[in-house]
Fold this protein.
Amino acid sequence: MKRMMKAALAGGVLAAFLSMSVSAEEIKVWVADAVTDFTSAQIEAFKEANPDFAGYDYIVEAVGEGDAAGNMITDVEAGADIYVFAQDQIARLVTAGALEEVAPDNVEAVETQNDAGAVGAATVGDILYAYPITSDNGYFLYYDKSVISDPSTLEGIIADCEAAGKNFYMEINSGWYQTAFFFGAGAELTYETDDNGLFTACNATYASDAGLTALKKMIELKSSPSFQNGSSVDKTTNAAAIVDGTWDSVAAQDLFGDNFACAKLPTFQGADGETYQMSGFGGFKLLGVKPQEDEDKLAACDALAAYLSSEEVQLARYNEVGWGPSNLNAQQSEEVQADAALSALAEQLAYTIPQGQYPGDYWTLATSLGDSVISGELSADSSDEDLMAALEQFQATCESYLG
């Protein structure tokens, strides 16, 4: 009896061992909850099309791009093998050793098939570290085409709004939106971080002729009776134009009805007589691959990342959940071209920079600068010396945030 029990136990242990030995190795994939089902379905299609990689056990987990980078940096080993993250986290992920370079065989395809902004967002130094999957976070112009005759210049938009007794909305006391003026005029404000997320360098040129040009234009805009500070369609009154993003597309269509239209941000004429294209921040979702000790597993991860970021899958993702593609061909598809908001944003993103990491206090500081314009503390009556003093203080405070 004991012999039989021992044999049964031994057999069970052996069976368990054999089961463990033949079980497939896992590839863990983190994506936002909104696309978990979509991603799972695409992985099944990938396995069918790539039988060499079908033997892995692909696990899809709901971890949004806002949380993925922090989780990866906290514990790279326990993190996902493939994950979607926001572009402003790429430097931290690289220095933390959480991102493998894009496979050499995939680099040319990624760089030539996606828009320049997305490729730039996926690149650190001269190295491509991620696969772009969206170009859909940024701001542009929604307008009423029965009021705005030509959306290409800020001066023309304001003149049309004033003539019609309508309002123009832009949130100039936001550190996100006000960069449209500063970056457009040629001023710079970016930060560098180490692998712990500490800010190690601040590249700022707001205290410059470019910064002065931008600040003066903000003051000029505020002086218009049509100007209203804001960026949410549902909080507007008597609006003919608003600087906003794709998330408000449906609300903007409801507001303007048959006169709904979109365009990239306009140009503006500086006090120096020069013409500048409004710029600002752009946002992108990127797909990263974690470094692997097993070269075969790394090859499988790279192949899947390339597939999930391909033209076909980006277009399918747009049709499923509305994420705007970074792939150039997908952007030119009938479906995406018919999306007026995404088309306007795609044009605007050519003039923006990818939003990197910024100290939390920067956003409060930028609000304070905008509030100084809105309150009239900084106005057309302010001397160039006073305006430059405000910019110098702003820049010095930005530089003080370094760790």
Remarks:
- Residues 24-137+282-349 form a domain with the D-Maltodextrin-Binding Protein; domain 2 fold (CATH 3.40.190.10).
- Confidence is low (pLDDT under 50) at residues 1-22.
- The chain has two domains: 24-137+282-349, 140-279+359-399.
- The longest strand covers residues 281-289.
